[in-house]
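Appendix B, example 12.
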Amino acid sequence: MSILVANTGSSSLKLRLVGPAGEIAAACDLPAPGDPVDLEPIRDFLATAEDVEAVGHRVVHGGREFLQPLLLDRAGIERLGALGDLAPLHNGPALRVLDALRRLCPDVRHVACFDTAFHAGIPDEAALYALPADWTEAFGLRRFGFHGISHAWASRRALELLGYAQAGLRLVTCHLGAGASLAAVRDGASVDTTMGFTPNEGLVMATRSGSADPGMLLWLIRHAGIDADELEHRLEHESGLRGLSGTSGDMREVIEASAADGPARTALGVYLHRLRAGIAAMGAAMDGLDALVFTGGVGEHAPLVRAEACAGLSFLGVGLDQDANESQETGDREISGAGASVRVLVVESREDLEIARAVHSVLAR
Protein backbone atom coordinates (compact mmCIF):
# COMPACT_ATOMS: atom_id res chain seq x y z
CA MET A 1 0.00 0.00 0.00
CA SER A 2 1.21 3.51 -0.85
CA ILE A 3 0.47 5.90 2.00
CA LEU A 4 0.64 9.68 1.87
CA VAL A 5 1.90 11.04 5.21
CA ALA A 6 1.01 14.62 6.12
CA ASN A 7 3.24 15.80 8.96
CA THR A 8 1.99 19.24 9.95
CA GLY A 9 4.29 21.09 12.34
CA SER A 10 4.28 24.59 13.77
CA SER A 11 6.60 25.86 11.00
CA SER A 12 6.24 23.40 8.12
CA LEU A 13 4.13 20.86 6.27
CA LYS A 14 6.05 17.75 5.22
CA LEU A 15 4.37 15.51 2.67
CA ARG A 16 5.82 12.05 2.04
CA LEU A 17 4.51 9.24 -0.15
CA VAL A 18 5.65 6.04 1.54
CA GLY A 19 5.70 3.09 -0.82
CA PRO A 20 4.87 -0.56 -0.08
CA ALA A 21 8.46 -1.37 0.93
CA GLY A 22 8.85 1.72 3.11
CA GLU A 23 10.61 3.68 0.38
CA ILE A 24 9.93 7.40 -0.10
CA ALA A 25 8.35 7.57 -3.55
CA ALA A 26 7.72 11.34 -3.47
CA ALA A 27 8.44 14.15 -1.02
CA CYS A 28 7.61 17.82 -0.60
CA ASP A 29 8.32 20.33 2.18
CA LEU A 30 6.03 23.35 2.33
CA PRO A 31 5.70 26.30 4.73
CA ALA A 32 3.27 25.99 7.61
CA PRO A 33 -0.27 26.05 6.22
CA GLY A 34 -2.15 29.32 6.37
CA ASP A 35 -5.82 29.87 7.00
CA PRO A 36 -7.17 29.04 4.49
CA VAL A 37 -4.71 26.44 3.22
CA ASP A 38 -3.17 27.20 -0.17
CA LEU A 39 -4.26 24.15 -2.15
CA GLU A 40 -2.15 24.80 -5.24
CA PRO A 41 1.24 23.50 -4.03
CA ILE A 42 -0.43 20.46 -2.45
CA ARG A 43 -2.31 19.77 -5.68
CA ASP A 44 0.95 20.10 -7.62
CA PHE A 45 2.62 17.57 -5.32
CA LEU A 46 -0.26 15.12 -5.61
CA ALA A 47 0.10 15.24 -9.38
CA THR A 48 3.56 13.68 -8.94
CA ALA A 49 2.54 11.29 -6.14
CA GLU A 50 0.79 8.49 -7.94
CA ASP A 51 -1.41 5.76 -6.50
CA VAL A 52 -2.15 7.24 -3.07
CA GLU A 53 -4.17 4.54 -1.31
CA ALA A 54 -4.50 6.12 2.16
CA VAL A 55 -3.47 9.27 4.00
CA GLY A 56 -1.95 9.39 7.49
CA HIS A 57 -2.11 12.67 9.39
CA ARG A 58 0.05 13.65 12.33
CA VAL A 59 -2.13 15.25 15.01
CA VAL A 60 -0.23 16.56 18.01
CA HIS A 61 -2.86 16.41 20.76
CA GLY A 62 -5.32 13.56 21.16
CA GLY A 63 -6.47 14.54 24.65
CA ARG A 64 -7.97 11.87 26.89
CA GLU A 65 -10.17 10.49 24.14
CA PHE A 66 -7.79 9.46 21.36
CA LEU A 67 -5.32 6.85 22.59
CA GLN A 68 -4.86 4.98 19.30
CA PRO A 69 -4.71 5.97 15.62
CA LEU A 70 -8.20 6.80 14.36
CA LEU A 71 -9.83 5.99 11.02
CA LEU A 72 -11.54 9.29 10.34
CA ASP A 73 -15.16 10.01 9.56
CA ARG A 74 -17.15 13.21 9.94
CA ALA A 75 -17.95 12.54 13.61
CA GLY A 76 -14.30 11.87 14.43
CA ILE A 77 -13.20 15.08 12.73
CA GLU A 78 -15.73 17.07 14.74
CA ARG A 79 -14.42 15.49 17.95
CA LEU A 80 -10.86 16.41 16.96
CA GLY A 81 -11.89 20.02 16.44
CA ALA A 82 -12.74 20.33 20.13
CA LEU A 83 -9.06 19.77 21.06
CA GLY A 84 -7.64 22.77 19.21
CA ASP A 85 -7.04 24.90 22.30
CA LEU A 86 -4.78 22.26 23.86
CA ALA A 87 -2.14 22.64 21.13
CA PRO A 88 -3.01 25.80 19.16
CA LEU A 89 0.30 25.90 17.28
CA HIS A 90 -0.25 22.40 15.91
CA ASN A 91 -3.78 21.00 16.02
CA GLY A 92 -5.40 23.89 14.15
CA PRO A 93 -3.02 23.72 11.18
CA ALA A 94 -3.22 19.90 11.14
CA LEU A 95 -7.00 20.01 10.92
CA ARG A 96 -6.85 22.54 8.10
CA VAL A 97 -4.47 20.24 6.19
CA LEU A 98 -6.77 17.30 6.93
CA ASP A 99 -9.70 19.20 5.45
CA ALA A 100 -7.65 20.17 2.39
CA LEU A 101 -6.45 16.62 1.73
CA ARG A 102 -9.91 15.15 2.19
CA ARG A 103 -11.09 17.50 -0.55
CA LEU A 104 -8.13 16.68 -2.79
CA CYS A 105 -8.14 12.92 -2.01
CA PRO A 106 -11.84 12.18 -1.39
CA ASP A 107 -11.77 8.53 -2.42
CA VAL A 108 -9.15 7.20 0.01
CA ARG A 109 -9.23 6.56 3.74
CA HIS A 110 -7.70 9.06 6.16
CA VAL A 111 -6.16 8.11 9.52
CA ALA A 112 -5.19 10.46 12.36
CA CYS A 113 -2.04 9.47 14.30
CA PHE A 114 -1.58 11.19 17.65
CA ASP A 115 1.66 12.38 19.22
CA THR A 116 0.13 11.86 22.64
CA ALA A 117 -0.83 8.21 22.09
CA PHE A 118 2.61 6.74 22.83
CA HIS A 119 2.49 8.26 26.32
CA ALA A 120 -1.12 7.34 27.08
CA GLY A 121 -0.11 4.49 29.37
CA ILE A 122 2.35 6.29 31.63
CA PRO A 123 1.55 5.50 35.28
CA ASP A 124 -0.41 7.88 37.47
CA GLU A 125 2.65 8.89 39.48
CA ALA A 126 4.16 10.30 36.28
CA ALA A 127 0.92 11.51 34.70
CA LEU A 128 -0.85 13.41 37.47
CA TYR A 129 -0.33 16.96 38.67
CA ALA A 130 -0.59 17.64 42.41
CA LEU A 131 -3.73 19.73 41.96
CA PRO A 132 -7.16 19.60 43.62
CA ALA A 133 -8.80 16.31 42.72
CA ASP A 134 -12.01 18.02 41.62
CA TRP A 135 -10.03 20.04 39.03
CA THR A 136 -8.28 16.93 37.77
CA GLU A 137 -11.56 15.08 37.39
CA ALA A 138 -13.65 17.93 35.99
CA PHE A 139 -11.12 19.24 33.45
CA GLY A 140 -9.12 16.13 32.64
CA LEU A 141 -5.86 17.63 33.87
CA ARG A 142 -2.90 15.32 33.38
CA ARG A 143 0.46 15.12 31.64
CA PHE A 144 -0.19 13.91 28.10
CA GLY A 145 3.32 14.11 26.64
CA PHE A 146 4.13 14.79 22.98
CA HIS A 147 6.53 13.86 20.16
CA GLY A 148 5.23 10.34 20.74
CA ILE A 149 5.48 9.35 17.09
CA SER A 150 9.16 10.30 17.06
CA HIS A 151 9.85 8.64 20.43
CA ALA A 152 8.11 5.46 19.26
CA TRP A 153 10.23 5.30 16.10
CA ALA A 154 13.49 6.13 17.92
CA SER A 155 12.92 3.45 20.56
CA ARG A 156 11.92 0.84 17.99
CA ARG A 157 14.93 1.64 15.80
CA ALA A 158 17.27 1.59 18.80
CA LEU A 159 16.22 -1.97 19.58
CA GLU A 160 17.14 -2.98 16.02
CA LEU A 161 20.52 -1.25 16.18
CA LEU A 162 21.40 -2.70 19.57
CA GLY A 163 20.14 -6.18 18.74
CA TYR A 164 18.32 -6.37 22.05
CA ALA A 165 15.00 -7.89 22.91
CA GLN A 166 12.43 -5.31 23.94
CA ALA A 167 11.88 -6.83 27.38
CA GLY A 168 14.00 -5.28 30.08
CA LEU A 169 15.64 -2.56 27.98
CA ARG A 170 15.61 0.94 29.52
CA LEU A 171 15.97 3.77 26.99
CA VAL A 172 15.88 7.54 27.24
CA THR A 173 14.93 8.95 23.86
CA CYS A 174 15.81 12.61 23.27
CA HIS A 175 13.76 14.35 20.59
CA LEU A 176 15.65 17.61 20.18
CA GLY A 177 14.45 20.02 17.53
CA ALA A 178 12.65 23.36 17.59
CA GLY A 179 10.44 21.57 20.09
CA ALA A 180 12.19 19.23 22.50
CA SER A 181 11.18 16.43 24.84
CA LEU A 182 12.50 13.30 26.50
CA ALA A 183 10.85 9.94 27.09
CA ALA A 184 11.68 7.13 29.47
CA VAL A 185 10.96 3.93 27.51
CA ARG A 186 10.99 0.63 29.38
CA ASP A 187 10.06 -2.66 27.70
CA GLY A 188 9.09 -0.66 24.60
CA ALA A 189 6.52 1.50 26.43
CA SER A 190 6.71 5.11 27.59
CA VAL A 191 6.70 5.36 31.39
CA ASP A 192 7.55 9.06 31.74
CA THR A 193 8.15 12.11 29.59
CA THR A 194 9.01 15.78 29.97
CA MET A 195 6.13 17.51 28.17
CA GLY A 196 2.84 17.76 29.99
CA PHE A 197 -0.72 19.02 29.52
CA THR A 198 0.55 21.11 26.61
CA PRO A 199 3.79 21.04 24.57
CA ASN A 200 5.18 23.97 26.60
CA GLU A 201 6.28 21.96 29.64
CA GLY A 202 9.72 20.47 30.10
CA LEU A 203 12.95 21.28 28.29
CA VAL A 204 14.08 24.66 26.97
CA MET A 205 13.12 24.85 23.28
CA ALA A 206 13.82 27.15 20.35
CA THR A 207 11.11 29.69 21.16
CA ARG A 208 9.13 27.95 23.95
CA SER A 209 10.04 28.41 27.58
CA GLY A 210 9.63 24.87 28.81
CA SER A 211 8.80 24.54 32.50
CA ALA A 212 8.33 27.82 34.34
CA ASP A 213 7.18 28.56 37.90
CA PRO A 214 3.37 28.96 37.76
CA GLY A 215 3.59 31.41 40.65
CA MET A 216 5.86 33.62 38.55
CA LEU A 217 3.37 33.55 35.69
CA LEU A 218 0.56 34.52 38.07
CA TRP A 219 2.76 37.37 39.34
CA LEU A 220 3.21 38.63 35.77
CA ILE A 221 -0.56 38.63 35.25
CA ARG A 222 -1.30 40.42 38.51
CA HIS A 223 1.60 42.87 38.73
CA ALA A 224 2.97 43.41 35.22
CA GLY A 225 -0.34 43.89 33.45
CA ILE A 226 0.23 40.95 31.09
CA ASP A 227 -2.98 39.28 29.94
CA ALA A 228 -3.43 35.63 28.99
CA ASP A 229 -3.09 36.20 25.25
CA GLU A 230 0.21 38.05 25.59
CA LEU A 231 1.49 35.51 28.09
CA GLU A 232 0.69 32.64 25.73
CA HIS A 233 2.31 34.38 22.76
CA ARG A 234 5.50 35.25 24.58
CA LEU A 235 5.88 31.85 26.23
CA GLU A 236 5.47 30.07 22.90
CA HIS A 237 7.12 32.44 20.42
CA GLU A 238 9.58 34.70 22.26
CA SER A 239 11.01 32.52 25.02
CA GLY A 240 13.37 29.54 25.08
CA LEU A 241 16.69 29.96 23.27
CA ARG A 242 15.33 32.96 21.43
CA GLY A 243 14.37 34.78 24.59
CA LEU A 244 17.60 34.01 26.41
CA SER A 245 20.02 34.63 23.54
CA GLY A 246 18.44 37.37 21.49
CA THR A 247 18.89 35.20 18.37
CA SER A 248 16.21 33.49 16.30
CA GLY A 249 16.36 30.50 18.64
CA ASP A 250 17.85 28.25 15.95
CA MET A 251 20.41 26.07 17.73
CA ARG A 252 22.93 26.49 14.89
CA GLU A 253 22.84 30.26 15.36
CA VAL A 254 23.03 29.97 19.15
CA ILE A 255 26.09 27.69 19.00
CA GLU A 256 27.85 29.96 16.53
CA ALA A 257 27.12 33.06 18.60
CA SER A 258 28.03 31.39 21.91
CA ALA A 259 31.75 31.47 21.09
CA ALA A 260 31.82 35.24 21.54
CA ASP A 261 28.44 36.32 22.82
CA GLY A 262 27.53 36.24 26.52
CA PRO A 263 23.73 35.90 26.19
CA ALA A 264 24.04 33.11 23.61
CA ARG A 265 26.56 31.30 25.81
CA THR A 266 24.20 31.61 28.76
CA ALA A 267 21.27 30.37 26.67
CA LEU A 268 23.23 27.30 25.62
CA GLY A 269 24.21 26.66 29.24
CA VAL A 270 20.60 26.84 30.44
CA TYR A 271 19.51 24.53 27.62
CA LEU A 272 22.16 21.94 28.46
CA HIS A 273 21.55 22.16 32.22
CA ARG A 274 17.85 21.37 31.73
CA LEU A 275 18.66 18.64 29.21
CA ARG A 276 21.10 16.83 31.51
CA ALA A 277 18.73 17.10 34.47
CA GLY A 278 15.86 15.77 32.36
CA ILE A 279 17.83 12.76 31.11
CA ALA A 280 18.85 11.89 34.67
CA ALA A 281 15.23 12.18 35.81
CA MET A 282 14.04 9.89 33.02
CA GLY A 283 16.67 7.34 34.06
CA ALA A 284 15.50 7.57 37.65
CA ALA A 285 11.93 6.79 36.50
CA MET A 286 13.21 3.41 35.26
CA ASP A 287 15.70 2.67 38.05
CA GLY A 288 18.56 2.91 35.59
CA LEU A 289 19.53 3.41 31.98
CA ASP A 290 20.80 1.05 29.27
CA ALA A 291 20.88 3.33 26.23
CA LEU A 292 20.52 7.01 25.35
CA VAL A 293 19.08 7.91 21.93
CA PHE A 294 19.38 11.30 20.22
CA THR A 295 16.97 12.22 17.41
CA GLY A 296 15.41 15.32 15.83
CA GLY A 297 17.19 18.14 14.02
CA VAL A 298 19.38 19.15 16.98
CA GLY A 299 19.81 15.63 18.29
CA GLU A 300 21.00 14.39 14.91
CA HIS A 301 23.09 17.34 13.73
CA ALA A 302 24.56 19.12 16.79
CA PRO A 303 27.54 17.10 18.08
CA LEU A 304 28.32 19.85 20.61
CA VAL A 305 24.92 19.39 22.25
CA ARG A 306 25.35 15.61 22.40
CA ALA A 307 28.87 15.92 23.80
CA GLU A 308 27.97 18.48 26.47
CA ALA A 309 24.85 16.60 27.50
CA CYS A 310 26.75 13.33 27.89
CA ALA A 311 29.70 14.98 29.65
CA GLY A 312 27.45 15.72 32.60
CA LEU A 313 26.06 12.20 32.75
CA SER A 314 29.20 10.16 33.29
CA PHE A 315 27.93 9.23 36.77
CA LEU A 316 25.19 7.22 35.00
CA GLY A 317 27.76 5.39 32.88
CA VAL A 318 27.29 7.56 29.77
CA GLY A 319 30.36 8.13 27.63
CA LEU A 320 30.97 9.15 24.01
CA ASP A 321 33.53 8.26 21.40
CA GLN A 322 34.62 11.78 20.46
CA ASP A 323 35.58 10.91 16.91
CA ALA A 324 32.34 9.04 16.27
CA ASN A 325 30.32 11.89 17.75
CA GLU A 326 32.00 14.54 15.59
CA SER A 327 32.09 12.44 12.42
CA GLN A 328 30.31 13.81 9.36
CA GLU A 329 28.67 10.43 8.94
CA THR A 330 24.90 10.60 8.74
CA GLY A 331 22.17 8.10 9.39
CA ASP A 332 21.55 5.80 12.32
CA ARG A 333 24.71 4.96 14.25
CA GLU A 334 26.27 4.26 17.64
CA ILE A 335 28.60 6.85 19.20
CA SER A 336 29.27 5.18 22.56
CA GLY A 337 32.67 5.45 24.17
CA ALA A 338 34.79 2.39 24.87
CA GLY A 339 33.91 0.91 28.24
CA ALA A 340 30.76 3.02 28.72
CA SER A 341 28.00 1.03 30.38
CA VAL A 342 25.29 3.11 28.71
CA ARG A 343 25.22 2.93 24.92
CA VAL A 344 24.58 6.13 22.97
CA LEU A 345 22.87 6.21 19.58
CA VAL A 346 21.93 8.77 16.96
CA VAL A 347 18.72 7.86 15.13
CA GLU A 348 17.26 9.74 12.20
CA SER A 349 13.75 10.92 13.00
CA ARG A 350 11.35 9.04 10.72
CA GLU A 351 7.89 10.06 11.79
CA ASP A 352 6.80 9.36 8.22
CA LEU A 353 7.57 5.66 8.54
CA GLU A 354 6.03 5.42 12.02
CA ILE A 355 2.82 7.07 10.77
CA ALA A 356 2.72 4.80 7.71
CA ARG A 357 3.16 1.80 10.00
CA ALA A 358 0.23 2.98 12.15
CA VAL A 359 -1.98 3.50 9.08
CA HIS A 360 -1.22 -0.04 7.89
CA SER A 361 -2.15 -1.35 11.33
CA VAL A 362 -5.48 0.51 11.42
CA LEU A 363 -6.51 -0.47 7.91
CA ALA A 364 -5.58 -4.13 8.48
CA ARG A 365 -8.03 -4.51 11.35
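The longest helix spans residues 262-285. The chain is about 40% helix and 20% strand.
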